[in-house]
Fold these 2 entries.
Entry 1:
Amino acid sequence: MEINWEQLWIDARKDSVLAKYRKDVGVELWDRGAEEYSDTIKRDGFKYGEQMIDVLKSIIKPDFEVLDNGCGPGTLAIPLAKLVDRVVALDPSKGLLNVLNESAVEAGIKNIETLNKTWQEVDDSEIRARFDLVVTSNVLWQFDDICKQLRRIHDASRRYCCAILHAGLTDDLDRDMWSRIMNKEYNFGIDYIYIYNILYTRGIYANVNVIDSAYTFEKSVNDAIDYYEYLFDLYTEITPRIKRMIKDYIVKNAVDGIYRRESKTKSAVMWWEK
Ligand SMILES: C[S@@+](CC[C@H](N)C(=O)[O-])C[C@H]1O[C@@H](n2cnc3c(N)ncnc32)[C@H](O)[C@@H]1O
C-alpha cells in the first residue's frame, strides 16, 4: 500500500496548534518577535546555527553561493557567511532582516545579500540551479503545498539541499504554561518525518542527523509577561483570568526578577545531493 505522505502532511497541519491561530498573523508575527528572536540566538552565540552547519561541514566549500530560505534573524546565515563566498538570505519579515543586518555589521560580515520576499514570490527562472547549497531551517512547517515547494528548493540548487525541521515534540513554547492556560496539551503536530518520506517517495534518500539543541529564553518578569500575553493572544482571547494566570505563572517561576527557561528540542538536519 502506498502511503500518501503529502496528504498526511496536510492533515497534520490541520491538526496542529498552528491551525488554531485565531487571527491571520503572517509576517506581522515575525516582525513583532524579531528583536526577541535575535536576542535569543545571540545569547547563545549562534550556537544553534553552528550545530546545524556542523552537519554540513564535509560538503560546504569556500566558493559556495548559498541560499538561506526563511533565514530569520540569521540563525544559519551569519555562521554560514564565515564559511562560504556568498549567502543570499531570504525572508518576508523586514524586522528579521533588519536584525540580521545588524548582526552582520557587528560581526564584520559583508557577504550576505538580503532578499525581502516570501519563497513563493521568488521567480523560478531567476534561481534555477543557481546555488551550490539551498538551506531552509524551521520554515517548511508553514507551507501547505509542501511537494511543490520542496521541488522548487531542489531546482534552485545545482549541488546540495538541506531542510531542517524538529523531530518529535517541540519545546518552543512553555508546555506547562500552555496546558494550564489552554486546558490541553501543547502539540505542534508537524515534524521532519513527513518531509523525509515525501523526499523518499520522490527518489531522494536524504541523509539525516538528529541533533539535540537548547536555547534559553530569559526576560525580566514584566517583559516575560508582555511576551507571553502577546503569544497567547495568537490563540485565545486574553481575558482578565488568563492575564492573571500568565502573571502568576511567571512570577512563581522567576528568580531574582528574571524569568528564565531552557527550551530543548531535537532538530533533524536532512541533506541531499542532486
Ligand atoms: C521559525 S523561523 C526560522 C528562522 C531561521 N531559519 C531559524 O532556523 O532560526 C521561520 C521563518 O520563516 C519565515 N517565513 C515565513 N513565511 C515564509 C515564506 N513564505 N517564505 C520564506 N520564509 C518565510 C519567517 O519570517 C521566519 O523567519
Entry 2:
Amino acid sequence: MTDKLRVGIIGSGGIAEGAHAPGYKALPDDCELVACCDVRPERAKAFAERFDLAHWYTDYRELLTLPELDAVSICTPPFMHRDATVAALDAGLHVLCEKPMAMNVAEAQDMVAAAGRAGKVLTIGHQQRFSPAAQAVKRAVDAGELGNIYYAKTAALRNRGAPTWGVFHIKELNGGGPLIDIGVHALDVTMWLMGSPRPVAVFGATYMALAHRPGLQNRMGTINIEEYDVEDLAAALVRFDNGATLMLETSWLLQMTERGNAYTQLFGTEGSARLDPFQIVRDVDGVPEDVTPELPPPAPDPPKQPAPSAPAAEDASAGAEAVPAEEAVTWRRQPSVERFVQAALGRAEPLVKPEETLNVQRVMNALYQSAETGQLVEITD
Ligand SMILES: NC(=O)c1ccc[n+]([C@@H]2O[C@H](COP(=O)([O-])OP(=O)(O)OC[C@H]3O[C@@H](n4cnc5c(N)ncnc54)[C@H](O)[C@@H]3O)[C@@H](O)[C@H]2O)c1
C-alpha cells in the first residue's frame, strides 16, 4: 500500500453521498476515492460522475476484486452489512461500515471474527463520539473527574420523523425502527462515555402506536403503512457488569409538540456530564457546581478543490488559489471518515472498536427479545 488509501463505497445512497464521499474527498493528501457500487445502475453511475470516480459497479463482489483498492465504506441498508463487511475483510480491505453494525449479534460476531482473521481495521459509523462535547466528556470521565459512573440516561426522540426512503421501515431488511436508526447512536455514545462496561441484562418495551394511523403527518414523507412493520418507540433499562444502569428511550413518532429531543446524561459519585446542551458538573465542598469548560472551535474546512466535473486547474501545484471560484467545491470534513483513514494508514487507533459496537448490538437484540416476551433478558453470549 502507498501512503494514500484507495477507497471504494458500497451503496451509493443518502449517507454515502452526504457524508462518506465528501469525507474522503476532503482528504486529498491521504486518500483517493476510486470506485462505487449500487444495485441500481443509474445511482452508481450518477454517483461516480458526481465524485469523479474511475469505476462503478452493480455487484459489490466485483468492486472487491479491484486490485488497487485498500479500503471500503459500506453504506447499504443493514441486511447487507455483515456479508459485505466479511467479504471485504476477507479480500484484505479495511472497512468502515455504517451503523447499525449488523442485523443481530451472530452477524456482528462474524464481522469481529473476520476483522481478527484479516488483521485489518473494522470500524462503525458512530460519528456522535467525535463531537467536541462528547470528546470533552470522555476526557473528564477518563481523568476520573466524575468519579464512579453508576447511572446514565439517553434519548433520541422525534415527534414526526420516520424516514420514508430506502428500507428503514421494513424489519426484515433494516432490523428494526428508531432503535436501529437513531437509538443506536444514543446507546453507542453513552456506553462509550460510561467506559464501555459489559451489558448483562435488559428490560425493554417497544410500541407501534402511531405509524398506521390514518392522516398522520410525518415530516419525512408519507409512511407506507402496508410495509411499515417496525416499532415507533423503544424504551429500556440496561444493567452492566459493574452495577451501572442506563435508561434509553428512542422514537420516530410521538404525540409531543417538540420536533425532537436528544440527550445523554451521566451521573457519577463526583459529578455529572451532559451532551445537548453540554455541561459538566462537579462536587465542590458538597455542592454540585457547573464547571463546564469552553469547547474548542470546530476544525476549519479544507481548502477548495476543483469540482469533479470541472476541468483541472492549469497549475494544480499552485494549490487552492489555482481553482477558479465557479469550479471549486469544499468537501466538508467528516471526523469519523478522517479517523478511519488515519487508522487504515496505521497512524491512529480506530475510535469506534467493533467489540464495543458488538455490545451495542447485544443490548438492541436483548431489548427486542424483552419486548416480545415481557421478561428481563440476561445477556450471556
Ligand atoms: N451515521 C449516520 O448518522 C447515518 C445516517 C443515515 C444513514 N445511516 C446508515 O447508512 C446506511 C444506508 O442508509 P441511507 O440513508 O444511505 O439509505 P439509502 O436507501 O439512501 O441508500 C442505501 C443504498 O444502498 C443500495 N443497496 C441496497 N442493496 C445493495 C447491495 N446489495 N449492493 C449495493 N448497493 C445496495 C440502495 O440501492 C441504496 O442506494 C443504513 O445502515 C443507515 O442506517 C447512517
